[in-house]
Amino acid sequence: MIRAGRTARAAAHLVGIVSALVVLASCRVDQTITLDVTPKGSGTVTVLLVADAAVVAKVPDLAADVRTDDLEKAGWDVDGPDTTDEGGLRVEISRDFATPEQATAIMAQVGGQDGPMRGLALARSGKDTNSTWTLAGALQITGGLGAFIDKAGADLIGGAPFAGEVSDAGLEIGEALGIEFVASLPGKIEATTGAARATGDTGVSWRVPMDGSTIDVATTAVNVDVGASVARLGRGVLRFLLVVWVVGTLGLLAVVWWKNRARTPRL
């Protein structure tokens, strides 16, 4: 069972730390959300948060502030926080799913009520050997830093966290915070609004806009399992040959029996 409430609170805390960092000039925090789907419909949703060395230098106790207990209790795997080669900090959380419906539910957890992932849904149609995959939904951040805190927290502190400081400093959220969504679907991408990944990577990606605008993630992929199709055809041919062999054998036995019967003298 997917416990959305606990996961949303834990994720809000994790991203809340990130939102606080946008007030630090020259600092950068990047978040990558990845949907990786296998041909069977299972897969993994991964969220990677990376704070650069400037963030760690200004907040040396950042690693201790990252609490992931609730995420682990809610079924997420947590890797980190760890120090990067450049002196920054990374935290990766991931959760496996068995069906497209579970993937949709997990993405809803990651997005939360006001998060960047709006109504993302994964679906599959067709047969196992010839299936069509569709990804629908949108990416959007509204309310500035208010998107990174739940309503209860906003009511408690009287608004979005650090909104005044960001405004006074003349900063834009996009200058300090980047969010990328990556989807890797089985088969060949037939249509997408995303950008192709590097050579050898079958995924497509989108950068979440920070100005309140919306990006449609409509994507369609077709997966044809050639090996399974050939194997199925081969089984059909073998079955046909077996029937021919059985019929032929029975026919031959019938002919032999008839000839022997004809040669047998009658008393």
Could you describe the 3D structure shown?
The chain has 267 residues and is of the alpha+beta class. The protein has two domains: 4-224, no CATH class; 226-267. The protein is built from nine helices and twelve strands. Strands 3-4-2-1-7-10-9 form a seven-stranded mixed beta sheet. A hairpin with a 3-residue loop joins β5 (117-126) and β6. The longest helix is centred in the last third of the chain and has 38 residues, at 226-263. The protein starts with a helix and ends with a helix.
Mean pLDDT figure: 73
Main sheet specs: 7 strands, mixed
Number of domains: 2
CA gyration radius, whole angstroms: 29 Å
What fraction, in percent, of the residue positions are helical? Answer: 25-40%
Side by side, the strands of the main sheet go: 3-4-2-1-7-10-9
Structural class: alpha+beta
In short:
The chain is an alpha+beta fold and 267 residues long. It has helices at residues 4-20, 53-58, 62-65, 69-73, 100-111, 151-157, 163-169, 173-176, 226-263, and strands at residues 29-37, 43-51, 77-83, 89-97, 117-126, 130-139, 177-184, 188-192, 195-196, 204-207, 215-216, 219-224.
State the main characteristics:
alpha+beta; 37% helix; 267 residues; 12 strands; seven-stranded mixed beta sheet; 2 domains; elongated; 9 helices; five-stranded antiparallel beta sheet
What is the topology?
Elements: H1 4-20, E1 29-37, E2 43-51, H2 53-58, H3 62-65, H4 69-73, E3 77-83, E4 89-97, H5 100-111, E5 117-126, E6 130-139, H6 151-157, H7 163-169, H8 173-176, E7 177-184, E8 188-192, E9 195-196, E10 204-207, E11 215-216, E12 219-224, H9 226-263
Helix pairs in contact: 1-5
